[in-house]
């Protein structure tokens, strides 16, 4: 399924396109692996000056493939091997990361933006982190980064109630740098990536290292990952994913 992530290096800009539009760009283990491999390799490729992440179709990403979550909750799978590698590669990435986001960005689709240095949203973007609604916990160090970025009250509402944040509010809260019409999204993100590509790479790298402690973020990810893995195997999670498959609201009063 690695064909669901397209990679193109042009003019020092490495573009990673989530290309599974028929499934709303839901991320599979294979896709996480391809993303992690590409970001890790870029650290050692002098031709790569900037990374640009975008999604094909009408949605950035629906987040993790729910079918894979459900398989873990039911005991049929040991879970993703690569999601941890992907989010850690974001935390450790020293190259500038630019994101172009349209439509819905769910779960990791939102939390990965906290690791991007410039974020451009289309006017129709909606960000959401419905982890608790799936009986899970936040990931990608978002339990640390989100409250730091937007404040505890807003972050808790996003996590605990799964509240959706529209593009303009996301911009006001500091989750994005630009909001543009949908038909200008790719051009705006590319223009910013090109401006970064013309900047001195050494100075950009040093600045990013001063602003972000990648190893501290990885430690938070590991703590979150332990809780996440435990939560996936609870009765609450089984009820959440069974309800999703049956297209009904979950009833957590029966299991918690």
Average residue pLDDT: 95
Contiguous helical run count = 11
**Which regions are unreliable across 5 or more consecutive residues at pLDDT < 50?**
none
The CATH top-level class label of the domain at 5-182: Alpha Beta
Q: What would you say about this model in short?
A:
The chain is α/β, with parallel strands linked by helices and 256 residues long.
Task: Walk me through the structure.
The structure is a single chain. By secondary structure, the protein is α/β, with parallel strands linked by helices. The protein has a domain at 5-182: 2-enoyl-CoA Hydratase, Chain A, domain 1. Helices cover 46% and strands 15% of the residues. The chain has helices spanning 29-42, 66-73, 83-92, 108-111, 142-150, 152-161, 167-173, 185-197, 201-211, 214-232, 235-246, and strands spanning 5-10, 13-18, 50-55, 97-101, 104-106, 118-122, 126-128, 165-166, 178-180. The strands form 2 sheets. A 6-stranded mixed beta sheet has the order 1-2-3-4-6-9, with helices on both faces. β2, α1 and β3 form a beta-alpha-beta unit. α2 packs across α11 (235-246). It starts with a strand and ends in a 10-residue tail after the last helix. The mean pLDDT is 95.
């Amino acid at each position: 399924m690695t064909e669901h992530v397209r990679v193109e290096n042009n003019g020092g800009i490495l573009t990673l396109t989530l290309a599974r539009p028929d499934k709303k760009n839901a991320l599979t283990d294979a896709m996480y692996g391809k993303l992690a491999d590409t970001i890790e390799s870029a650290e050692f490729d002098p031709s790569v000056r900037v990374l640009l992440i975008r999604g094909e179709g009408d949605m950035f990403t629906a987040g993790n493939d729910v079918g894979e979550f459900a398989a873990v909750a039911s005991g049929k799978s040991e879970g993703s091997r690569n999601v941890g590698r992907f989010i850690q590669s974001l935390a450790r990435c020293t190259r500038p990361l630019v994101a172009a986001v349209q439509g819905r960005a769910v779960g990791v689709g939102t939390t990965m933006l906290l690791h991007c240095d410039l974020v451009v949203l289309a006017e129709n973007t909606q960000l959401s982190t419905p982890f608790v609604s799936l009986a899970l916990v936040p990931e990608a160090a978002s339990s640390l980064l989100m409250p730091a970025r937007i404040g505890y009250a807003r972050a808790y509402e996003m996590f605990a109630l799964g509240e959706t944040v529209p593009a303009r509010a996301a911009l006001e809260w500091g989750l994005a740098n630009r909001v543009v019409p949908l038909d200008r999204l790719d051009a705006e993100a590319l223009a910013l990536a090109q401006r970064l590509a013309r900047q001195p790479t050494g100075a950009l790298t040093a600045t990013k290292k001063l602003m972000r402690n990648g190893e501290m973020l990885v430690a938070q990810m590991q703590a979150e990952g332990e809780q996440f893995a435990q939560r996936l195997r609870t009765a609450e999670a089984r009820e959440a994913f069974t309800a999703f498959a049956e297209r009904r609201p979950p009833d957590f009063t029966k299991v918690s």
